[in-house]
Known about the structure:
The chain is α/β, with parallel strands linked by helices. The protein is built from eight helices and twelve strands. The chain has helices at about 10-20, 35-40, 55-65, 80-90, 105-115, 150-160, 165-175, 180-195; strands at about 1-5, 25-30, 45-50, 75, 95-100, 120-125, 130, 135-140, 140-145, 165, 200-205, 210. Strands 2-1-3-4-5 form a five-stranded parallel β-sheet, sandwiched between helices. It has a four-stranded antiparallel β-sheet with strand order 6-7-8-9, with no helix packed on it. A three-stranded antiparallel β-sheet has the order 10-12-11. The protein is elongated.
Amino acid sequence: xxxxxxxxxxxxxxxxxxxxxxxxxxxxxxxxxxxxxxxxxxxxxxxxxxxxxxxxxxxxxxxxxxxxxxxxxxxxxxxxxxxxxxxxxxxxxxxxxxxxxxxxxxxxxxxxxxxxxxxxxxxxxxxxxxxxxxxxxxxxxxxxxxxxxxxxxxxxxxxxxxxxxxxxxxxxxxxxxxxxxxxxxxxxxxxxxxxxxxxxxxxxxxxxxxxxx
Length: 213
C-alpha cells in the first residue's frame, strides 16, 4: 500500500516516514502545488496536515474532492476542536487524528481505513459500509449491530439492489414458514431506514421495497 504524507514539518514528516515505511511504501510531499493533484492516483491513502506554511490543508482537501479524487484522506493535525473536525469530515476526510499521536495508533487507523475502503466484499451507501463476508455494518467507522432479521432483510435488498423486492419474496426469504405478515416487514424496514442514508429504501405501495445505491 502506498502512503503520501503532505506535511511541512520536515522533522515530523521524516520521522513518520521512517516509522511507516516498515509497513508501507511512503512518500512525502511539500511544498504543495497544482501538480500534486495529478500524482495522487498512484497512492492508496493520504496523510494531510492542516496548518501548512503556504496553503491550508482544508483547501487541499476541498480541491481533492472537487477534482473527484476519491483516495482516502486521514487528517493529521494539532487542531483538536470539534469545528475543525466537522469542516474536514464534511469536506470529505475519512479520518482525523490529533497531534501528538502514537504512530502505532496511526497504523491501526490506516489499516482499518484500508480494510473498509478497499474491501472486495464491501458495499458502500453514503457513509455506511456493509461487509457482506463479515456480516458487519459501519457508519463513519463505528460498527452498528443489526439483529438477525435486520441483517437478512438488508442482505436480501442488497442482493436485488435496484429492483423492487416484493413482499412475498421478502417474507419467504427472511421469515420462511413463520406466520408473519407485511406489518413485520414494515417494522424492520423502518429500523433499517434509521440506519441507512435517507431515501436509500424506496417504498412501492402494495408491492414491496427497492434499495437504491
